[in-house]
């Protein structure tokens, strides 16, 4: 079987009307999982705002899907307020908030964890999610028509990963926060869920493997091969950004109207498999 055989984000089969007229903000939308989700959302009729710190990449993608781009460092609450505000001034509403921005590492022993590195990571991976849920919820509650908030956690929250303690901590905390906010926001018709990918060879994963294996020459083909062999029950196949985008599309759409406080794992069976795989 061909390694990582996958569907293309530009394939018409991903088109539909599942999000017609909905307004979505996607943090970390300039590349990787966020960018694939932006394309799939737009192809399903949503108006998409890409919120990221990679201005050139984010703006080009936003242009290509007739969306909007806003510079947004999710660790800064004021930037997230600006991103949500853009949705309100542009279309008068926000229906979907995909809190996806995240960073990896540091890798290494807990005995060597630098507390300032931990703080920097939590500022983005955790406080960034808090900012996103908080301000999307405010706008959704005010409008009174409900909404869908989706956050990106990780298989690391379930199984640990690559001696990345700070990362694991941030991703497990997200699942707890999703459950508690879902309990509160359900009365407003707002669903809060998360998606937990595993082993998708994006910039973040490839640089994580480079750090972990101490090999700066490692390319995405090699990472795909490693993950395909060890990180999935579906032999010869690692996850793709489109696999995750489809899961997010489901959670964002009315198809998931009775799904809340859920962690949708997109990992080719990795987290349910026995330890012989890891
Ligand atoms: P990626 O590096 O391609 O994308 C991450 C995006 O987040 C980039 O566009 C980046 O610019 C943006 N970002 C980083 N810091 C930011 C900040 N402070 N403010 C706003 N945007 C910021 O990697 P990806 O794999 O697409 O990662 C997306 C999410 O998926 C992350 O939360 C990551 O932890 C999670 N995840 C990925 C995998 C995987 O296998 N790739 C597995 C589990 C979880």
UniProtKB/TrEMBL annotation:
Gene3D superfamilies hit by this protein = NAD(P)-binding Rossmann-like Domain
Q: Which domain of life is it from?
A: Eukaryota
Pfam families found in the cross-reference section = adh_short_C2
Keywords noted in UniProt: Oxidoreductase
Q: Name one GO molecular function term.
A: oxidoreductase activity, acting on the CH-OH group of donors, NAD or NADP as acceptor
Q: Which family does it belong to?
A: Belongs to the short-chain dehydrogenases/reductases (SDR) family.
The UniProt entry, under InterPro entries, shows: NAD(P)-bd_dom_sf (IPR036291), SDR_fam (IPR002347)
Is-annotated flag, keyword Lipid metabolism?
no
Instruction: List the protein's name.
Output: Uncharacterized protein
